[in-house]
Amino acid sequence: MTFLVFIFLLSFLQAESARISSSNPIFGPRQVTGLQEGSVTVKCFYPRTSVNRHDRKYWCKESRSQCVTVISSSGYTAQDFAGRATITDFPEQGIFTIEISKLVEKDTSFYKCGIGLNDRGLSFRVKLDVSKGPNVPAEAELYYIELGGSVTIDCVFDPKYGSERKYMCRMGKTGCTNVIDTYGNVNESYKGRVLLSPQETDGSFSLYMTQLRKEDSGVYLCGVGIYGEKGESKELDMHVYQETSVPQGPHVINGVIGGSVSVECHYDPRGNYTLKYLCKWRKHGCNQLITNLATMIDSYEGRIVLHDNPENGTFTVIMNQLTAGDAGYYWCMTDGDTERKSTKELKIIDGQPGLTGPKEIDAVIGTRVTIPCSYPCKYYSYQKYWCKWHNTGCQNLISSEQNQTGLVVNCDKEKRTLYLTFDQVIQTDQGWYWCGVSHSGHYGETMAVYLTVNGGAILPDAKSEDASMSNIGSENSIVPRNKAGVIDDNSSPSSQEHDSSKVILSVLLPIAAVCLLLATVFVVVKFRLLKRTDLVSVGSYRTNISMSEFENARDYGAKDNMGINDAQETQLGGVDEFITTPGNAERAEEPPKMKRGSKEEADIAYSTFLLQANKVAQGEA
C-alpha cells in the first residue's frame, strides 16, 4: 500500500512540474555542464513584451532559504563571481545570456535565471555541473515558441546515415514515442502539424512543427536509425509559452462539394515578411498552392486567390469549386526574421453551396450577356460583388445589386440575385468571374463562372463592301454558327437585313433606268409631232390642220386657177429649184421667187378648195 502511494505522489509531482513549466513564460536549459577552469554560457528566454524588455534580468544561486543574486542587469555582481560572470540582454530577441568562466568545483549547484525587481520574480531553474573532463555531454538544443506558433529544426548527421530511417520522437516515462518518420508514420496527435523533409546533404533532414500547443512543451529527440538500438540522435528541448499578440482564428474549416472556403492566416504586422503562401500538407512535404508573389499551381487556376492585408497582419486565401480531394491540412506560411506557420484543417461535409448560378457560359462577340448569381436570405446584409479573376488577385467589377429597388424587409419567399451584365462582349472579356460576399472586412462564400467568347459575323464597312460582296458563297466567307457547328439563323439579324436591302436595290435600279429611258423617248416623239402641226385662221375660224391632208392641194390650184403659173415647187436635197415645162422656156429664166411659209401655203390651198367648190355649185345650177 505504501508503495502505491509513493508511485501516486511521484506521478503527481511530475505532472505538476510539467504544468508549472508549461505555464512559466521564462525558459532556459534544464542542465548545463562545464569543465574545470573552463566556461559555460546559459541562454534564457522571455516574452518580448514592453515591460519585460525594460525589466531587470538576474542570475541567482539557490540556497536553503533563498536564491542569492550572482549578477543582474542593474549592474550588481557578487564578490565570488567578480571578474568571471557577465550578463547580456537582447530585448529585441527576448533573450538574455549569462556567461561564467574559470569554473571551480564549488560552482556546481542549482541556479535560476529570471526577470523582476527581486529574486522571487518569474524564473526558470537550471542545474550547473562542473566536470573534471575530459568529455562534456552534449546539451539539448532549446526552442522557445509562442502558443500557436511554429518552429523549424535542422537535424544534421553524418552522410553515412543517408539510407537510414529518419525520425523524431518525444521522451516520456517509458521511452521515446514516435512523432514522425520517413516510413510515413505520423502520430495522430501531430497529424497535419508536423513535417519531415530531407536536406540536400545525405543523412540530414529538417523538421517543421506548427500550431504548437502548451502540451507540446517537452524534450524530443531527432535521429537516424532506431532509437536505443542503432544510429545517432540529439536532444531537443521545446517550450511553448502562452503570451502571444497574434490571433489564431479557427483551426478547423468546413466546406461542401462545389462550394468555397476562406482561410484567414495571421502574422505579426510588425514583422518583415516578404513571402506569404499557403501549402497543402502531406506526410513527405507541403505542396505550395499560391503565394503573394503571383505564383500558383496550374491545377488551381480560376479557383484560388490570395488577399494580403499588411495593416492588420492577415492574408486570406479563398478556394472555390471544392472537391472531396481538397479535404486535409493546410499551412499558412511566412518568411522573414521570425518565420511563422499555422495549420488549418479543411473538412468536406454534406450540404449545398450558398451561392448558385451557371458554371459556364458561351457568348458570341457583340452580343449582350447577363450572368446571374443567387444568394440565400442570410446574406441579405452582406456586401456582394463580382470580380474578374487573375493570378494576381480578383479585380472588383461591381459591388451593388442591380435589381435592388428599395428597402427589403422580408426575404423569406425566394432567393435574391446579383447580376453581371455585358452590353456587348468582346474577346478580352473571356475568362473566370467570381461572385462573392463579404462582411466586416472578412471574405465569405464565392462562386466561379467561366465565360467563353466565340467569334461572330463580321459586317463589311463602306470601303470593303464591294470586296466582301464578291466573296459571298466562297469558302472563306464568315458564317455565324452555334457551338455545335450548325448555322444559327438568329445569330446576326442585322446582317440578314443588310443582305436583303442589297437584293431589292439590285432589282429596282434597272427598272427605274428603263422607265426613265421610255419617258425620254415619248417626250421626244411627242415634241416632233407637235412641231409638224400649225394653227390656220380663216376669218374668225381657227382650226388645226395637218399639212398631210393637203399634200395635193397645189396640184388642184395649178389646173383650175387661171392666174397661177404652171411651175411646180418642190425640194431636192434641201435646195429650192423650179422645174419648167418646155412651153414656158423664156419665163423660166426669171429669177426664182422667195419660198412661201407653211401658213401661206395653207391659205392658197384653202382658197383653191373654195374656188373648186364654187365652180361645182355653178355647174349644177
Automatic annotation (TrEMBL):
<dbReference type="InterPro" id="IPR036179">
    <property type="entry name" value="Ig-like_dom_sf"/>
</dbReference>
<feature type="signal peptide">
    <location>
        <begin position="1"/>
        <end position="17"/>
    </location>
</feature>
<keyword id="KW-1133">Transmembrane helix</keyword>
<feature type="domain" description="Ig-like">
    <location>
        <begin position="353"/>
        <end position="452"/>
    </location>
</feature>
<comment type="function">
    <text>Mediates selective transcytosis of polymeric IgA and IgM across mucosal epithelial cells. Binds polymeric IgA and IgM at the basolateral surface of epithelial cells. The complex is then transported across the cell to be secreted at the apical surface. During this process, a cleavage occurs that separates the extracellular (known as the secretory component) from the transmembrane segment.</text>
</comment>
<keyword id="KW-0325">Glycoprotein</keyword>
<keyword id="KW-0964">Secreted</keyword>
<dbReference type="GO" id="GO:0005886">
    <property type="term" value="C:plasma membrane"/>
</dbReference>
<keyword id="KW-1003">Cell membrane</keyword>
<dbReference type="InterPro" id="IPR050671">
    <property type="entry name" value="CD300_family_receptors"/>
</dbReference>
<keyword id="KW-0812">Transmembrane</keyword>
<dbReference type="GO" id="GO:0004888">
    <property type="term" value="F:transmembrane signaling receptor activity"/>
</dbReference>
<dbReference type="Pfam" id="PF07686">
    <property type="entry name" value="V-set"/>
</dbReference>
<comment type="subunit">
    <text>Interacts (mainly via CDR1-like domain) with dimeric IgA. Interacts (mainly via CDR2-like domain) with pentameric IgM.</text>
</comment>
<comment type="function">
    <text>Through its N-linked glycans ensures anchoring of secretory IgA (sIgA) molecules to mucus lining the epithelial surface to neutralize extracellular pathogens. On its own (free form) may act as a non-specific microbial scavenger to prevent pathogen interaction with epithelial cells.</text>
</comment>
<keyword id="KW-1015">Disulfide bond</keyword>
<dbReference type="InterPro" id="IPR013783">
    <property type="entry name" value="Ig-like_fold"/>
</dbReference>
<dbReference type="InterPro" id="IPR013106">
    <property type="entry name" value="Ig_V-set"/>
</dbReference>
<protein>
    <recommendedName>
        <fullName>Polymeric immunoglobulin receptor</fullName>
    </recommendedName>
</protein>
<dbReference type="InterPro" id="IPR007110">
    <property type="entry name" value="Ig-like_dom"/>
</dbReference>
<feature type="transmembrane region" description="Helical">
    <location>
        <begin position="503"/>
        <end position="525"/>
    </location>
</feature>
<keyword id="KW-0472">Membrane</keyword>
<keyword id="KW-0393">Immunoglobulin domain</keyword>
<dbReference type="InterPro" id="IPR003599">
    <property type="entry name" value="Ig_sub"/>
</dbReference>
<dbReference type="GO" id="GO:0005576">
    <property type="term" value="C:extracellular region"/>
</dbReference>
<keyword id="KW-0732">Signal</keyword>
